[in-house]
Amino acid sequence: MSAHLRTALGLAVAGVPALPLRVGKVPFGNCPTCAKNVCGGRPNMKAPGPCTCPNPCHGWAAATVNPGILNSGPWVRVWREAAGVAYHPGGAGLTVVDLDNAEAIAWARASLPATRIVSTTRGEHWLYRGAMQSANSVRSGVDIKSLMQYARWLGPGNGSMAVLPDAVRALAVKAPSTARRAPQELSAPLGAARGECPHRTPTYLDRGIAMAEQRITEAREAVHATVYRTFLAVLSTHGRCGCLTEKHAARLFTAAQAKGESPRHCTDAWTNALTTLGLSHV
After folding, report:
1. 268 φ, ψ to 5°?
2. What pLDDT score was predicted for residue 66?
3. Of 247, 242, 248, 249, which Cα lies nearest the Cα of 269?
4. Of 151, 245, 248, 251, which is most buried by a Cβ count within 10 Å?
5. Confidence of residue 270 (pLDDT cuts 50, 70, 90)
């Protein structure tokens, strides 16, 4: 039995769907019967019709917690050729924030709750309890891997796993194609919210605002969507305890307008973010 197969079986016992990876850190290609998905795919891919193929086909959807499948004849042959092991985070109720460089790691440390961390070749995987839609390039060097996606298994990591925060969910939300009309004047945005403050020190908030300004400033495309997602992330992290002031909002609006956004779009994006998070009544 190969070391990769032993790892996969251990993951399956723990309830983590596993699959083999070939050289290049990608799943094995579909077999001739399933080439170009002519078989209809697998039910958990939301494709028409079931797939009865006994091979590890269909990318992430091949991941399984069934030891009998992992250790079956067609799979054992593939495991002998495998260069690594992957898993389906969403199938295990997990979300992986894939941080590809030092800048992305610095952003996560300043903006996200501490959680379990797995070291990777170029950066870190931050693991959270809870599944969500996956999304690539939500900001420079940051991908989200959860439902309908796979991640390399690089070990259990270190630290306690935290619950998936709204700040991560917000990263995958696309800006509405047509923003709702909103007032042109922004009053004190969240001054009435007085929940318990989880932010430890004022420096945490200031650093978060600075990182948000930087994200907007560095946007090279999809500026509308970037502005909305940034507002959503800031409000999801800092919007319920009354820490945000007009000064903080003005800094974000200024950064957005410097990228060519109109005052109306800024206000609409802020209002839409408040509504999405259930804070519009404030």
Report:
1. -60, -45
2. 93
3. 249
4. 151
5. confident
